[in-house]
Amino acid sequence: MNHHQRHPLIGITAHHYAFKFGIEIIAQGQMSSYIKAIASTGGAPVLLPLDLDEGPLRVIFEQLDGLVLPGGPDSVPAHYGQEPHEKLGRVDEELDRTELILTRWALDADLPLLAICRGIQVLNIALGGTLYQDVPSQLPNALEHHRFRQRGYPPNDQAHKVTVTAGSRLAAALGDTKVMANSRHHQAIDTPALGLSVVANTADGLIEGVELPQASFALGVQWHPENLIDENPPMRRLFESFIRAARD
What we know:
By secondary structure, the protein is of the alpha/beta class. The chain has a single domain, classed as Class I glutamine amidotransferase (GATase) domain (Rossmann fold), CATH 3.40.50.880. Helices cover 30% and strands 22% of the residues. It has 8 helices and 13 strands. The chain has helices spanning 31-40, 54-61, 93-109, 118-126, 135-138, 147-151, 169-174, 233-247; strands spanning 9-13, 15-19, 23-27, 44-48, 66-69, 113-116, 131-132, 160-164, 178-181, 188-189, 197-201, 207-211, 218-221. The longest helix is centred in the middle third of the chain and has 17 residues, at 93-109. It is globular and about 45 Å long.
């Protein structure tokens, strides 16, 4: 799309927020960091509303040069054939519906896709994989992956090292095979979907990065690179690589 050449249009799914007085708002609580990361690396970010029929959603989708699946609540376990675990958190069926549709469209169209935290999980579900519904109870020897949620660590707290497979698309995008990442998730990929390559892990073996080798750019990370673009150069490079793919 020539008119997007300089600043590719990057869609980010919005979320539901219920406020007192019974007003429902569709917004993005963590959105300022995603918007800043996309805008500061050359993209034009736009929020994608929920509660749309596929027709209008498709009209919006067709304008996009790239898609970000952001962090957010848990997914409904029925999407990967499981019953809810007792530690399952808040879910949003409409968010699941919208993101699964957008993800499948993006993969079909080979639209550049960057999946972050919840996003890596949605990407895995869309392709037929499964999740740990609660890492601390289902993977007893796991590192502390949900630091931010419980103890007030700052969003850019660099919690642990992630090892990235040399020669992978993710390593090329980050420009490194060892990175320090923040960590605030209690779910993670359990069984990776067929065709999805696991290309990053933490020391406990948890999956931290995936990619679709045949796609022009379809990467997922379990951490939040958008909070780290100022102090962690590989994270800025990840966004720059994504924006470059969207521009092409």
